[in-house]
Amino acid sequence: MTLKPAFVILALTASLAGLMARTPTTAVAQQANLAVAARVSTSFVSGHETLTAVQDGASPRSSDDTSHGAYGNWPKHGVQWVQYSWTRPVNINGVAVYWYDDNRGVRVPQAARLLRRDGNLWTEIKAADGKTLSLRKDTFNTLAFAPVTTDKLRMELTGNGKSSTGVIEWTVGDAGKSPAFLPVVSGPADRVVRPGVKTELVATARSASGGDLAIAWSRVSGPGAVAFDDPNAASTCASFTTPGEYVLRVTARLVAARIGSEDGSADVHVKVRAEQPLVGQSEVLTRHYNLTSPLWKARSKALIVNWIPHCVAQIDKPDLREGGIQNLVEAGKKLAGRPSKPHVGYPFSNAWVLNTVEAMCVALARDADGDTEVANAQSAIRKKLDEWVPVILAAQEPDGYFQTRITLGDAREKGQAALARRWRAELRGEHEGYVAGYFIEAGIAHHIASGGTDARFYEAAKKLADCWAEHIGPPPKQEWYDGHEEIEQALFRLAAYVDGVEGAGKGRKYARLARFLLDCRGRHGGQDYDQTQVPVTRQYRAVGHAVRAVYLYSAMASAARASGGANYLSAVDSLWNNLVNRKMYITGGVGSGETSEGFGRDYSLPNDAYCESCASAGMLFFQHQMSLLYGDARYADLCEDVLYNALLSDVDLSGRNFTYTNALDTDEARYKWHVCPCCVGNIPRALLSLPTWMYTRQADGLAVNLFIGSKTTAPNVTGTDVVVTQATNYPWDGKVTLQLDPGSPKVFALRIRVPSRHASELYTPTPAIGGIEALAVNGQTLTPTVEQGYAVIRRTWTAGDRVEFTLPLSVQREKANKAVTADQGRVALRYGPILYNFESADQPIDGKLDSSARITAQWRRELLGGVTVLRGKFSDGTPFQAVPDFARNNRGGRSIVWVKEDSR
Ligand SMILES: [Zn+2]
Predict the structure, then answer these.
(1) Which of 241, 317, 595, 611 is spaced 20 to 30 Å from 415 by Cα?
(2) Is the pLDDT of residue 414 over 80?
């Protein structure tokens, strides 16, 4: 018996022109393929692969043809399984399987068994003559058997002990007595679009029973009309005139129903948004600042006095297997014509050396304020920078290129062969742009730290960017995108910085290069893992590796700000919407880890989360760029959430141990080092750049985004430098006094963020608390207007002017959206920006919290460096104490964010 994949595929490719011309057609069914109507699951799927590819009906050309995707379980060995489940039992008599074999880590299995669910047991299915599934490459392996009825079919794959296994396609033949299944329709991703701008909608529809399908797009709800280019094409475009929220539906109907006649459908939610970017905003770079906040003084000190010196010591170890400064020393020797050793460690090992260097530069911006330990650590950092900068510069090739893995080659590949490996499409994993991006950012930070007096590293950073610009670009230059995003956001930062230092327009070429790199992504198709599945302007869902993703989105927000364009804005807004409202943990962390270091499906947020520390840093960068793009306080709300609840917990209170992953339910202690040390400098560079997250400049004034006891200068606020001093013990106390000291009296708008604790649709805090209370300017009470989430005070500001206000703080209970199954029946506690954890160090944490239990906030000076704890009683009457999330796991035991709630 031959089974052919037999169903209708209406649209699979992104080739719009081709699809627009195509009408729904049919591949004539020989036998219905019931795989189409099944839900597919597995013991494990590799992050590089897509499980649903096995049921997509593609006909592979070979066992290495993954053009329509494949399932693989690399790097797992041993027995793995893939399973189809149907909502109603099916009657089947055969399967056909096309094995995936990439000739590397994934090979045809050594054995395969087909099992059906039979009551509580799995029973093997064999052919009448006892034959089982064959294991031939490059063809469909078919197995015909006597009809059986089941609702679950499992294929068990046994590898050869050294390799993983995989499947490209798996069809299941209908024996004729199966129930009717609806056509299966996948709609396009939810999105945000601009009024009057066309957005492309692509649906796929398949029928288990074969036969022609008729497609229809319609508007289910929304405030205005929707115009479809062709409402009966699987791939079409739509435009909207009126802002608001819409629901569209795509329906597939069997034209000539053989079995069943119901319609399959999928809905897509579209937000039509008219908000335009706020032109003229700019960053306040982190230069000299004082800290008075007890919380931040202590945390920043732990980073400067303990964490950074620890990273420096690691980098200095000549035999560090992750490859520290020695890689740069060796590259310098080689470039000077002296004997050298090969590159050590991962291809990206220069990256964490350089993000540590950036963190060292940023650490110098904080005034030691008489703390001799901080001052001594800073002098040691300064000395180390003086030693390292010449080493870094010597490792840069004469034309500006930098990446010691390429310069030195590795143990297998030396000399010219290695040199020829720059920007090779088959070597995207070399992390050339990832490393280069950190080099550029460290160069900027070093220039800032020197007060602009030492331009060596800054010039080297520009030279590196120039080298890229020389080779990468429109023809005759070459196309390029990096396997791991980072250089894009670094180039946008460089563009803005060069404009600031050398004059407007001088940095434009770097922004152009960044935009070109972004536009190369997905041009020829690719994978979710590194966000190349489609061009970036058509990406609406956060997918793939989470750090790569948020670094990309941060750069896309910069691109939208630099050169606008409705498609960039729509993509960035859609990605933000999907990330924040479907895939973000309540801590602000991202990446559930259900795909390789990446995202799971919408609302899939298990509390054993991956949430890499680098992804939290990237999340902060993305929200900061969105804040610069739109000037709306909702982005600064998220910056605050991420800073306090995702990033601040990455290093322990002593600053001696860190964590790579950040689960919301964990008993894992932090550790000194990780075999992949990407996060070690990323964490302090983000946490120590406080003034950058605290303030933004507008064309007409200054915005205050965060409330931290501190003093710094915001330069050039409508033409004058303004010293801003915040006196506050926030987040433990809501009273804030802002003192403004402009260089000369000046009219400008002061925008004070009015915090909202409801930053994501996923989590709802009660009671609702917000607003700013008791605001007074120089003692005079004032009721400011609130624009885009900021209280705006426009007046002539004179040295010594004081603004006082109170941010209401009280305990809030957070409930997760019903779709987040992991958090159902549970509640999380918040106090201002701080989320709380229940720790087994304080009490058993399996207790239930009564929904009406009284919870009070209490300051405890002696606990965890001084924190406000939340106290109350579980429903069985035993007392509990919850501690801030950032202080979790400092006393051993288990720590959870979401505690059980009594449903009474
Ligand atoms: Zn990392």
Answers:
(1) 317
(2) no
pLDDT at 184 over 90: no
Quick count: other Cβ atoms within 10 Å of Cβ 625? Answer: 25
Quick one: pLDDT at residue 68? Answer: 79
Segment 89-128, tens digit of pLDDT: 999 999 999 999 988 899 999 999 999 998 889 999 999 8
Task: Find residue 836's DSSP bridge partners.
Answer: 884
The pair of structure tokens assigned to 523 is 């041009």
Sign of the CA dihedral with 754 first, then 709, 806, and 898 last: positive
Tell me the two tokens of residue 632.
Answer: 């709306």
The Å distance, Cα 615 to ligand 1 centre, comes to: 7
CA of 492 from ligand 1 middle (Å) equals: 21
Cα separation, 539 vs 532, in Å, equals 9
Structure confidence by residue, pLDDT tens digits, 842-884: 999 999 999 888 999 999 999 999 999 999 999 999 999 999 9
Write the pLDDT tens digit of every residue in 526-565: 888 999 999 999 999 999 999 999 999 999 999 999 987 8
Q: How far is the CA of 614 from the centre of ligand 1 (A)?
A: 4
Contact criterion met (CB below 8 Å) for 266 and 230: no
Rounded-to-integer distance, Cα 691 and Cα 367, Å:
13
Residue 522 backbone class (left: φ over 0; alpha: ψ -120 to 50; beta: rest): left
For the segment 794-826, what is each residue's pLDDT rounded down to a tens digit? Answer: 999 999 999 999 999 999 999 999 999 999 999
Q: How far is the CA of 889 from the centre of ligand 1 (A)?
A: 19
Q: DSSP assignment, residue 801? A: E
Is the pLDDT at 13 greater than 60, yes or no?
A: no
Distance 365 CA to ligand 1 centre (A): 24
Q: What is the mean pLDDT of the chain?
A: 91
Residue 119 Ramachandran class (φ > 0 left, ψ -120 to 50 alpha, else beta): left
Give Cβ neighbours of residue 655 (< 8 Å, ≥ 6 apart).
299, 301, 302, 303, 305, 306, 307, 310
Q: How far is the CA of 661 from the centre of ligand 1 (A)?
A: 9
Handedness of CA 237, 240, 243, 245 (dihedral sign): negative
CA of 677 to the centre of ligand 1 (A): 6
Tokens of 856: 């009070």
Share of the chain above pLDDT 70, in %: 94
CA–centroid distance, 758 to ligand 1, in Å, is 28
CA of 611 to the centre of ligand 1 (A): 10
- Measured in Å, residue 612 CA sits from the centre of ligand 1 at 6
Say how many C-beta atoms besides its own lie within 10 A of residue 528's C-beta: 24
Which positions ≥6 away from 496 have C-beta within 8 Å?
282, 283, 507
With residue 160 as reference, give the H or E element that holds it: none
Tell how far the Cα of 576 is from the centroid of ligand 1, in angstroms.
21
739, 800 Cβ separation under 8 angstroms = yes
CA of 443 to the centre of ligand 1 (A): 20
Distance 792 CA to ligand 1 centre (A): 38
CA of 133 to the centre of ligand 1 (A): 42
Rounded CA separation 678/692 (Å): 22
Instruction: Give the pLDDT confidence score for residue 413 in this predicted structure.
Output: 56
Q: Is the pTM here over 0.90, yes or no?
A: no
Give residue 591 CA to ligand 1 midpoint distance, Å. Answer: 12
Distance 687 CA to ligand 1 centre (A): 15
Q: Mean pLDDT lowest for which of 32-36, 177-181, 644-648?
A: 177-181
